[in-house]
Specification:
- By secondary structure, the protein is an alpha+beta fold.
- It starts with a strand and ends in a 7-residue tail after the last strand.
- It is built from three helices and six strands; from the N terminus they run E-H-E-E-H-E-H-E-E.
- The longest helix is centred in the middle third of the chain and has 18 residues.
- Strand 2 and strand 3 form a beta hairpin.
- It has a single domain, classed as 60s Ribosomal Protein L30, Chain: A (2-Layer Sandwich).
- Strands 1-2-3-6-4-5 form a six-stranded mixed beta sheet, covered by helices on one side.
- The chain is globular, with a radius of gyration of 15 Å.
- 29% of the residues lie in helices and 28% in strands.
Length: 134
């Protein structure tokens, strides 16, 4: 079965030993993703909604690189540093992408992320169905 690695070219991927996404057959797994832009800069400092939007844009980009689309997502995991204060803003951004798709999802509070300015990190799993011809 084909094993496809999707990388972004950041220096920490080979250092830590991970890929942005891995596709094996119809299964796509997106690593923990945060609100960084193409230059590696954090977007939306202090703004959970903007960080969630950028995080989701990064996830959609990784899905596309693995041959998947948002409607293929079957599960998301959302890690939030202050769930009481930020769950609604982060949930609203998540709903803008997944409102009609409605994957299984979890949102949990964590003590902190790798950068203390990060308010949210997300993972996603997708299943890309095989289309058979007539």
């Amino acid at each position: 079965m084909e094993h496809q690695l999707v990388t972004t070219g950041t220096p920490w991927e080979p250092l830590v030993g991970y890929s942005r996404a891995v596709r094996v057959g119809p299964h796509v797994h997106i690593s923990g993703t945060t609100a960084t832009n193409e230059a590696g800069d954090l977007v939306g400092i202090g703004n959970p909604y903007e960080q969630a939007r950028q995080t989701l844009a990064n996830i959609v980009e990784a899905l596309a690189a693995a041959g998947a689309r948002p409607e293929h997502v079957i599960r998301t995991r959302i890690y939030v540093t202050n769930i009481e204060a930020h769950w609604e803003a982060i949930g609203r951004a998540h709903g803008e992408v997944f409102r009609d798709i409605r994957p299984a999802s979890s949102m949990v509070e964590v003590a902190r992320l790798i950068d203390s300015r990060m308010l949210v990190e997300m993972e996603a799993d997708a299943y890309v169905p095989t289309v058979h011809g007539p």
